[in-house]
Amino acid sequence: MSAEPAGRDPPPLLDWSDRSHWSHTARQCRYCPGLTNLRDSKGKAAHKVCAEEALAQQAAEAADAYQTGHLG
Question: In 3D, which of 5, 10, 7, 3 has the Cα closest to residue 56?
Fold first, then answer.
């Protein structure tokens, strides 16, 4: 049995194995108050899990807007 709600794809898993996603300086995550050494593709501090949750939420909002016809 899957833990995901019916009709929803699991959230994307980001690959941050490249060294460019690491900094020796901890900074506050852009999504939560925690500190992280990780950097997203734009160089902003972000936990991988926080970034994945934000992407999943954005995708769900876009899908909802598409289905209801409220596209911008």
Answer: 10
pTM metric for this prediction: 0.69
What b/e readout covers 40-57, taking b as 16+ CB neighbours within 10 angstroms?
beeeebbbbebbbeeeee
Cα–Cα dist 4/46, whole Å: 24
Quick: pLDDT tens for 46-70: 999 999 999 889 888 988 888 877 6
57-61 contact pairs (CB < 8 A, 24+): 59/12, 60/8
Structure tokens belonging to residue 26: 């901890």
